[in-house]
Amino acid sequence: MTALLRYHTALLLRSQRWLAPFLLYAAYLAVGVRAGEPVLGTLGYATAGLLPVTAWVVRLCLGQEPAAARSVLAAAAGRERAHLAAVLAGLGCAALVGTVAVLGLTAISDLRRVDPFAAGAAGLLATAVCVLTGTAVGTLSARPFLHARGPSLAALVLGSLLALVTSGSPAKSVMTGLVTGDRTATVPLPWLALVGALLVAAGAVALACRATAWRE
Description:
Elements: H1 2-15, H2 19-32, H3 39-63, H4 67-77, H5 79-108, H6 116-140, H7 149-165, H8 170-184, H9 191-215
Helix pairs in contact: 1-5, 2-3, 3-5, 3-6, 3-7, 3-8, 4-5, 5-6, 5-9, 6-7, 6-8, 6-9, 8-9
C-alpha cells in the first residue's frame, strides 16, 4: 500500500492539477481571514473551505491515471487496493494542507479569551471532520459512479454544499460548534462529529472500492 500511495501522490504532484484547488483555498483564506480576529471563528471559516477542496483533490486522484495505466496497476495490485490508495493520497494531501492552515491561523489569531492549545486541538479535529466528509463527497462524485466530467463536477459541488448546510452533517456540526464557541469563549472538541465523519467516509470509500471491482 505504501508504494501505491507514493505512486498516486507523485502523479498528483507531477501533474500540477493540485495547483487549482490549493491555490483557490489559499485565496479563500487570504480574502476571508485577517490577523487578530477571534481564533475559533477563523478556524470555522478555514475548515469550511477545506471540505470542497478535499473533495476536489480526491476526485483528481481518482481520475488522473490513463485507462491503460489503471488497468496495469489493477492487474498488479488489485482494483480495490489501487482505488483505495488513490483516495488516501488525496485525503493525505488535503489533511496536510489543512493542518498547516490551522496551525498558522491559530498563531496569528486572537487567543486572549481561549486556551491556545485547546483552540488548536479544536481546529485540528474540525479539520479532520471536514477532510473526511470531503473525502466521502469526492469519492462518491468520481469513478466508478460518475465518469463524465460534467455530472461529476455537478455532484461534487452539490454534495459539498449539502455537507456544509444540512443539519446532522458532521461538517455542519463542527462549524456551528466553532461559531458558537467564538461567541461564548468556550472551545468545542467535536469528538462525536469526528466519529460520524469517519463512519461516513469509511462507508463511502468501502462502497466505491467494492463498486470499482465490478463496474470497471
